[in-house]
UniProtKB/TrEMBL annotation, chains A, B:
Its EC number is 3.5.4.19, 3.6.1.31. The lineage of its organism: Bacteria, Bacillati, Bacillota, Bacilli, Bacillales. Keywords: Amino-acid biosynthesis, ATP-binding, Cytoplasm, Histidine biosynthesis, Hydrolase, Multifunctional enzyme, Nucleotide-binding. This is Histidine biosynthesis bifunctional protein HisIE. The chain holds residues 1 to 137 of 261 of the full protein. Residues 1-137 are annotated as: Phosphoribosyl-AMP cyclohydrolase. Residues 38-110 form the Phosphoribosyl-AMP cyclohydrolase domain. The keyword Cytoplasm applies. It catalyses: 1-(5-phospho-beta-D-ribosyl)-5'-AMP + H2O = 1-(5-phospho-beta-D-ribosyl)-5-[(5-phospho-beta-D-ribosylamino)methylideneamino]imidazole-4-carboxamide; 1-(5-phospho-beta-D-ribosyl)-ATP + H2O = 1-(5-phospho-beta-D-ribosyl)-5'-AMP + diphosphate + H(+). In the C-terminal section; belongs to the PRA-PH family. One of its GO terms (molecular function) is phosphoribosyl-AMP cyclohydrolase activity.
Length: 137, 137
């Protein structure tokens, strides 16, 4: 997969959320094109990614730096780091060394949403006989 | 591009940010594999996307619903809506009817980040003669 690039910038192009200091990072497999994960990084995590060529994030739940694969071995070699037009989203193009998801799936996006919630409206059910009567009359 | 899917869920699988009521949405071109945009949606925007088969978001800056392409004509036909393993990120797989980015680029991620900021440290420059003297002594 070949994503067009027109401009080269440095890390000052990235805008972090004013409350959290974080920016969302889309992680994509550069070979298959699969979107693997959405995670978050702060400036230091992005610096470590650029310096090491492997995916670094900042874990919102654990409030600590997260070197992807440090425990599992499923590191991600970062081929390219992109920033979007207004600077508030980042994209890592990676070659993963194993599944991206903690469930063991290759991608975290393995669930498809097919419809809005199935709601059981009890009042409507209770009124059904009267409606049926109207329809059949 | 073919993203594996293993589970079918309904919209109740999506978890919204407790402060904003929003969830980040990665938008990807299902044919080229290009990641186009990162935007945000609330529950109503996701419902409209599922109901109409076109990309709907909620604009954080304008604080209003955003039907992609309503003004520009660059709508996005949504082929699939995915939710990630822990429910706090969504992926739209789309067929775009024109460029995704307001700049006219096909993707918002047209800028590559090659290095950390180039910093000019004026204090260090000012101290240079003394340092030079030390080094050369």
């Amino acid at each position: 997969m070949d994503l067009p690039v027109t401009t080269t910038v440095d890390l000052s192009a990235v805008r972090y959320d004013s409350a959290t200091g974080l920016v969302p990072v889309v992680v994509q497999d550069v070979d298959t094109g699969h979107v693997l994960t959405l995670a978050y990084a702060n400036r230091e995590a992005l610096k470590r990614t650029l310096a090491t060529g492997e995916s670094w994030f900042f874990s919102r739940s654990r409030q600590e730096y997260w070197h992807k694969g440090a425990t599992s071995g499923h590191t991600q070699a970062v081929v390219d780091v992109r920033v979007d037009c207004d600077g508030d989203a980042v994209l890592y193009l990676v070659r993963p060394n194993g599944p991206a998801c903690h469930t063991g799936e290759n991608t975290c996006f393995f669930r498809t949403v097919t419809h809005v919630e199935t709601s059981i409206v009890r009042d409507a059910t209770a009124a059904a006989p009267a409606s049926d009567a109207l329809v059949s009359s």
